[in-house]
Amino acid sequence: xxxxxxxxxxxPGKRVVLLGxxxxxxxxxxxxxxxxxxxxxxPSSEALETLGALSRELGFYAELSVNEKVATEVAxxxxxxxxxxxxxxxxxxxxxxxxxxxxxxxxxxxxGSYVIYVADDVGxxxxxxxxxxxxxxxxxxxxxxxxxxxxxxxxxxxxAFKISKEFSIPVILRTTERVSHASGxxxxxKLPKKEKRTFEFKKNLEQYYLGDVYAxxxxxELHEKLEKIKELSNNKNYHIINExxxxxxxxxxxxxxxYAIEALERLGLTDKVSVLGLTIVNPLxxxxxxxxxxxxxxxxxxxxxxxxxxxEVASILHRHSISDVKIYGRFTGHLPWYSExxxxxxxxxxxxxxxxxxxxxxxxxxxxxxxxxxxxxxxxKRTAAPRYLSFCPGCPHLGTFYALKKALLLERxxxxxxxxxxxxxxxxxxxxxxxxxxxxxxxxxxxxxxxxGMSLGVKDxxxxxxxxxxxxxxxxxxxxxxxxxAIWNNHPILMIVVDNRTTAMTGxxxxxxxxxxxxxxxxxxxxxxxxxxxxxxEFVEVVxxxxxxxxxxxxxxxxxxxxxxxxxxxxxxxxxxGLIVPKEEPYRIDPNKCTGCRTCIVxxxxxxxxxxxxxxxxxxxxxxxxxxxMCAHICPYNAIER
Amino acid sequence: MLKxxxxxxxxxxxxxxxxxxxxxxATAAAxxxxxxxxxxxxxxxxxxGSVTSHVRIGKKVLTPMIPKHSADAVIALEMNxxxxxxxxxxxxxxxxxxxxxxxxxxxxxxxxxxxxxxxIVSVLKGLTDKVYVVPATDIAIKxxxxxxxxxxILLGFFLSVFDTGINYEHVAEALKVTIKPKYLDxxxxxxxxxxxxxxxxx
Lengths: 642, 202
Description:
The structure holds 2 protein chains of 2 kinds.
Chain A: H1 3-8, E1 15-19, H2 20-30, E2 35-38, H3 45-58, E3 61-64, H4 68-80, E4 84-90, H5 93-107, E5 113-120, H6 133-140, E6 144-146, H7 150-167, E7 171-176, H8 177-180, E8 183-187, H9 205-208, H10 214-233, E9 240-242, E10 248-253, H11 254-266, E11 274-278, E12 280-282, H12 286-293, E13 298-302, H13 308-319, E14 326-328, H14 343-354, H15 364-367, H16 373-383, H17 396-410, E15 420-421, H18 446-457, E16 467-471, H19 472-488, E17 494-499, H20 528-535, E18 539-543, H21 548-565, E19 569-574, E20 588-589, H22 599-604, E21 609-612, E22 617-620, H23 630-634, E23 640-641
Helix pairs in contact in A: 2-3, 2-7, 4-5, 11-14, 17-21, 18-19
Chain B: E1 5-13, H1 18-31, E2 35-41, E3 50-58, E4 71-76, H2 81-84, E5 89-98, H3 105-108, H4 117-125, E6 131-134, H5 136-144, H6 150-161, H7 168-178, H8 184-201
Parallel strand pairs in B: 1-4, 4-5, 5-6
Antiparallel strand pairs in B: 1-3, 2-3
């Protein structure tokens, strides 16, 4: 049974191994979702993708919205007419959506329901920062639930819909990658019966007109709702609880508190320490926290990213005049301010805070390490060859960057001085590739706009034009405004749209530039070339990155145009991601022609190009080669052929 | 018999099918009656970087990431990658290495060196006697005509040399729900090839 068949099967009680994101998608289906919107972002993407694949058959609507702000707004409109809406995004998507969410909290969600699923990338494995959505939810006055494994994530999606409906308020489900990108055993619930419903907008200006006289009253009502949800959150059934009546209490949420519970087991302390693992983290269950804190002398707060619970618990204790308790966490230097926790760090934390208590620990931890182990591990790490991320075989971006570098050099631009601004997407890997081009990377859409600012100051012939790159999905998400700015204010930049016909880095979702939507239905793609031309750009050229020589010529022409006219130019490097087109017959290197000069390996560096120590020549690994043929353009001896 | 907790690492280079292999093993474990959690250390759509899957199976599994010095076994789809996870391994862990090397760009540019097979094995032997080197990708290409089923050969081998409490039937059942139907027979064949190879080591 395929994943899609599995996820739509109505078999309550069935146990399956599911990725957290699939469990979350299943939760939305079990909750009776009507409308799904979102923008992909690791570690959240599979939830949106799966719901898109299931939507038509199961009778709900799903779209990939152009960005997170649009996604939250479309979903809210649907909720206002009575539909159950579900929005998905990664943590930084909340920044984009925040403008709208900071008003939706006031209006509420009408007679529908509204759940936003946000996956935080703790450790910034595939993101520009570590950002804590719990803090954002608290600031937005939006209730926030926190999941600790795939099963809990599924259940909490359903709970979030219930809370949203009951109180007419948006609700956030916050996970981290250790929930969303972990696979675990999940038990299915029932699928809802699909009834034919009709929807209507019940006009109510005082609820939906934000501003003027209404905003203050809505603000008051929002806090009244939150007070009621706070009462609800005191229900112990929501949380993971071990009422040990111990002098030591651990408070935490998400996978962080699970690390601590596992650490307690490993140290043989399960019965000796009380635990309050929270699944509702905004508003916090104040009564419950007080009830537990009163019995404790030491409270350890186990959480990831920000000291959110640590601050809030301290404030709650202060309000209730509880002062004879010590709180340990980030502020006391017991937990790191960056990266993920894990069982190891939780163990260290516990051993640290237990020093001040009467609880004795048998140091089982020490037994795991014998004298020689650190030396052997050190030797292994030293022996291992380093391996960073690189472009996949067949990646058109590698061709684009190679051509850009060559064109800059041929036009006598100083590679060491000319700024090249990257953006969010696979092309951001360029500085780590053999081409080694690229100087900045910040957030969606910022590459081309930073470029404009730089062009105000960088004027000398050898350091210009300043270059900004943007991906196709990113162009629609946050690049349109920056593109308009460059032409209207006439910044003489070289803008390169790397159009690989998909949202590649998050797992190949569509975007407004392609012929199909999230649910697979055909649509008319937006043409980036026409958009840019209609804005008034005079130099717009489309190149094929696989055709490296022609790409070099076009970029050279663009550079000259910018310098001669002091106007911006646009290159659109268009070629589908090598992973979404069928693999073609691999290329091979003729050993009689290969001189072992290493040009292909050193200046280009596709993963399929490997070195044969025995022959002293380059070779192509057939099982890795995608058959793109770019390397054939690079070889000075025409040794690469098919 | 079901174990209390087993920690198994699958490590390799992005694009080698590491995540699929973890899913097969986890699904088989669930069929055998285990609780399961799988985590990935580094995971994204692109290829070429180091990727490690943490497969945790047991009567009750709390978190998806294996603590340091706690892995009972590692399957390395690429030889060099086994070294990088040495700090996760218990003493006497079982190590199954695919005799397959992908030289990273740093090595190809001559900025770093790639260890020889003997160097890798000798370092790992410091940790455990149970180091197995299996030319799985090579056999997959030569005998079965598809490099990707090298992983299934390794899995068959691994399950024969390491007692997980998971039966062959559970694995075959897991392959049915995780592999595209047209590749099922090939994978079942690869599983057998791996099991037969393990007999030679016994």
